[in-house]
Amino acid sequence: MRKIKQKLYIALFIITALVLLAIYGYRIEPNLFVVTRHQLNPEIVSNHASLKIVQVSDLHLKKFSDRAQKIAEQVNQLQPDIVVFTGDSIDRAEQIGGYDRFLSLLDRQTAKYAILGNWEYKSRADLALLKQIYTTYNCQLLVNESVLYKQGDRNLLITGIDDLVSNPDLIKSLQNINPNPNHLLLAHSPANLDDFSKDELQKLAEYKPQYMLTGHTHGGQISFFGFAPIRPPRSGDYVSGWYQINSLSLYVSRGLGISVLPMRIGAVPEIGYFEWFLK
User: Fold this and answer.
1) How many independent structural domains does the chain possess?
2) Shared domain check, 10 and 122
3) Cβ atoms of 53 and 86 closer than 8 Å
4) Cα-only R_g, the chain
């Protein structure tokens, strides 16, 4: 009889733990977000202030909400020089108005750059309208394009690559562009790096970008001590955090939203904050 009671207590404990974990995964963690802070080129001694970059990735905005407003407020509080949106900003084409409202809350004077993710394509969002909305809020949509951001007598070359579900083209992105000692790549999926052609790899070796910011994986959404059993297609072998690929430092953001499975466990949503000491 005692053994039966022990087994019942163990079963009850396991069931209770699973229920609490499910509640946490569905109701609590998806609504959290943290700011992760990173220093780029910290070895450089400079009298110049660092360039402050905030990364907003995988927002997956389904509708405007109090959480979206809090995210916008946090971005403003960080007082960045640049905000970059690394794809999957919206989840449904009909909610593009909610994303318009989100962008309207950000400091209009702050320079912003965006790329497309797979969900902008999957949701069949009106990309012309999306580009127009970005332009309204001082944001340039980069689709296989590069732009030079100037800070005093120094500058940063930003290259935005199209998503893997479309037509990413690094060579086109750098056409008629001079190499720059400060060069940032933006791509939605980290697997873009594994998909470069031989010619594109040669172009990488020529231009030598130092950093690449990506998202897409959501950190697996469900992660057990860094192990993510399920990740979106085209994630490659990447989960989240920093990876060193030859001379290129790759950062994979856990992003802010959820997709397909409406829960997060062990992959707390994040806003990335980067201080770049320009050469």
Assistant:
1) 2
2) no
3) no
4) 20
Alpha carbon 245 to chain centroid distance? 18
**Domain limits for position 50:** 34-276
What integer pLDDT is reported at residue 14 of this predicted model?
73
Kindly report the CATH number assigned to the domain that includes residue 253.
3.60.21.10
pLDDT digits (tens, 9 = 90+) for 207-248: 999 999 999 999 999 988 778 888 999 999 999 999 999 889
Helix axes 66-77, 96-104, angle to 10 degrees: 30
- Summarised one tens digit per residue, pLDDT across range 139-181 is 999 999 999 999 888 899 999 999 999 999 999 999 999 999 9
**195/129 same-domain check:** yes
Same domain, 4 and 111: no
Same-domain check for residues 114 and 252: yes
β-strands 145-151, 154-160 pairing: antiparallel
Ordered strands of the 241-245 beta sheet? 145-151, 154-160, 183-186, 211-214, 248-252, 241-245
The structure's pTM equals 0.93
227 and 133, same domain (yes or no):
yes
pLDDT of 260 reads 84
Assess contact for 258 and 221: CB atoms under 8 A: yes
Q: Record the tokens describing residue 181, joined without a space.
A: 């000692």
Q: CA nearest 117: which of 190, 194, 200?
A: 190
Which residues lie across from 114 on neighbouring strands? 85, 141
Strands, E, within the chain: which ranges?
34-40, 51-56, 82-86, 111-115, 139-141, 145-151, 154-160, 183-186, 211-214, 241-245, 248-252, 270-276
Residues 3 and 73 in one domain: no
Taking alpha carbons only, the member of 218, 200, 227, 235 closest to residue 270 is 218
16 and 135 in a single domain? The answer is: no
Say how far apart CA 184 and CA 171 lie, in whole Å: 15
